[in-house]
Here is the input.
Amino acid sequence: MKKVLFLFVFAVFIVSCEKDPPIPDPIDNLAYLDLHHFILEYGEVVWFIDSVELENKQSYGMPFFGSVVLDSTQEEITVKAMNLNKTEVIDSISLPMENNGYYMVALLGNTEEQSMVYGETDSHAPNRGEVKIQFLHAAPATDSVDVYVGGTESTDKAVSDLSFGERSGYTAYKDYVFRNSVVVSKHADQYSEENVLINYQQSELILSERNYLLVLARRMDDPSSDLALWLFNQRMLLK
Here is the structure.
């Protein structure tokens, strides 16, 4: 039976940051996996790693941080999500994993269509005084977006034309630049206040020398319209 160990995090807030997930020591044939659930209509979901059912149910927006003991230095692992009653497979993927690799899987969509976004995460810390940011579009009813960091000039556009289900690459910023402002707007050639979807400023939650996943997704308290930014620390190698 596959050996899995997951830390279940039960507190996440809109436009907020998790406490640092634990940074594990390297272990032979161990891979690290972050699980995210962003289908509001399903409420809680049940995860399976190969045939092993995770002990706790995952609520919308609450991240799980875990590890998987591999049978060899490389192995393909099946990751599956089911509804709370375990009567429906929402989606599943086969994820190639390597010893001491870092990975993420995000469950996205709505009742009509579901999918998983998955892949490796950057486990290397940014330079001193910097943060590295990756963006994920997880709002199914929202068209493609642009993301501006630190301002709204054309030179501040961090991501352009990011569609639902897409994950950007990592970009490094001075920590104070990212703390200053992040603006998400409808995709357009030029910035316009009329296109702004979310604008937050002066976040003291951002810590330097961290890697973050910034997710555009629906709010928990208003599934029909309101959007929010969800900010998650990503685990990194020990320095």
Residues 9-19 have pLDDT under 50 and may be disordered.
